[in-house]
Amino acid sequence: MKNIKKDYMKLRITIVGFFFAACLISIIAKAGYLQIYQSVWLATKAAHQYERPIKETGKRGTIYDVNLREIAVSIDITSIAAYTSKIEDKDFAANMLAKSLNMRASIIKSTLSSGKPFVWIKRKATPKEVYAVKSLDIEGICFLSEHSRVYPQKTLAAQTVGFTGVDGNGLEGLEFYYDNQLKGSDDNFIVLKDALGQGFNAEKSSGDNNNGNDLVLTIDQAVQYLTEKALQEAVVDSSATSGIAMVMVPKTGAILAMAHYPLINPNSYKQYDKQFWRNRAITDPFEPGSTMKMFTASAAVEHGDCKPDTVFFCENGQYAVGKHTIHDTHPYGWLTLTEIVKFSSNIGAYKIVKKIGPEALYKTLKNFGFGEKTGINCPGETSGFLASYKNWRNIDVGTISFGQGISASPLQLISATSAIANNGLLMKPFLVQTILDQKGQTIKSFGPTPVRQAVSPKTADTIKKILTSVTTKEGTGFNAILDGYTVCGKTGTAQKVDKTGRYARGKYISSFIGFTPVENPEIAILVIIDEPTKSHYGGIVAAPAFKKIAQETLTYLNVPPNIKEPDRITVSRESRVLS
């Protein structure tokens, strides 16, 4: 009996021993499996329980004018967010937040009830709003530091500089074009959490400065301001719909001012119609009208063996070309090449091209950059339109010679005119001159870049002399005569094309373009007025704005006067030739 009990006890002990041994082996095997094969997965899972990655984006770079005056800056600002799982009474929280933030409670409640662990309540709140929400002391509401883009000069060069969205990404203008340079890089933090989910330590993954790079523009705030002011006055005085004005340095291609009207404030861009957001001086082509006659004259001198005193018969103001009729504002008989430009004769321009041939005009226009992009460092540039001379009809020869049937951007037009001022050398226009890093060191610079010799220096000098006749008391640009400075210029009046491709009755684009002083041009200026209603002649509508911009800019740049007493014989407006 004792032996049976003994054997039974041994059996039980053996079974229990085997059971515990099997358990121990299983535990060891499982531990080995987890340690050897699942170590990475377990480490990651554990880290997720006590570590929380935080991403911080550096400040966006500053945009300066040519004199390092701030045009666009980034400032620190607080955004309000919520950890939804920590908010027990979402109705109460939504109602309280709505009162403090002047928002609808239903929208906030919907956000808090979205099921997402983290939600934004209001991005980039005002200090007053942040204080009000902090005073509520609602558990689960957090306050995160972000960066906000601010434009201290408000409307100044707004379409050129552009603006950013709520996430700090460039949406228009230079902000968009140089977004990769301006935006700060992302920097990662690891925040350690305790059992209650509260952070108690943080370690930055990188110690490098993660702010964006800065831009230094060619824009001069002073020139930009006076250009915008003169443009606004011209648009308002003529009851026009809009306007564009530009100031360029002919020798370098640097743009000192690029103005638009109506103005927009990039600090609140959503309040403005989207059609006024873009930089229309670069993106929108238009028919330049009679300003093209200076390039027709350039073709005549360069390729047609014409001189300023070469004469053409202008058919007394009316000339039939097939089924079409070309008209002049006034009836002219024989006119010299100079007089055709001075009095802006359409028939004379047609006669010039008939003499030199369409190919010569086409080649000259291409050399001046028409029909192709300038390559300026700004987004959305149009190439305009210039059909091959091989496809020109007989009437096209005439219309293109005086600026119809061809389209160009304001930038192309001022660049081409600057080439005449620059002894025939076409320069690539540019808006940004330097990119700086966070330490102020130059990363990349942009400077004068010759494109090609559009016409010979001799031809350019001849055209300058012809263009000075436009700004005399008898010329179409009499309103552009400056006090103390010689000036070259050309008026333009073009009928607008509507959406159907036909010319709209009573709708015009009036313009004036020129440069000064003639002997050593410091600035070229273009003024375009869209749909003026009181008068549509470029010499009446746009030339006075040119004069204001030129006179004040030359004074600001300390350019010494080169004439003592300009010819100031008073002539009634009705007796002058207009275009």
TrEMBL record:
The keyword Hydrolase belongs to this UniProt entry's keyword annotation: yes
Q: What is its main location?
A: membrane
GO-annotated molecular function: carboxypeptidase activity; penicillin binding
The biological processes this protein is annotated with in GO are: cell wall organization
Q: Which SUPFAM superfamilies match?
A: beta-lactamase/transpeptidase-like, Penicillin binding protein dimerisation domain
Localization, per the record, is: Membrane
**Which positions fall inside the Penicillin-binding protein dimerisation domain?**
57-198
Q: Which InterPro entries match?
A: Beta-lactam/transpept, Beta-lactam/transpept-like, PBP_dimer, PBP_dimer_sf, PCN-bd_Tpept
Q: What is this protein called?
A: Penicillin-binding protein 2
Q: Pfam families, alphabetically?
A: PBP_dimer, Transpeptidase
Going by the UniProt record, its keywords in alphabetical order are: Carboxypeptidase, Hydrolase, Membrane, Protease
Source species, domain of life = Bacteria
GO CC, sorted alphabetically, is: plasma membrane
Q: Where is the Penicillin-binding protein transpeptidase domain?
A: 243-550
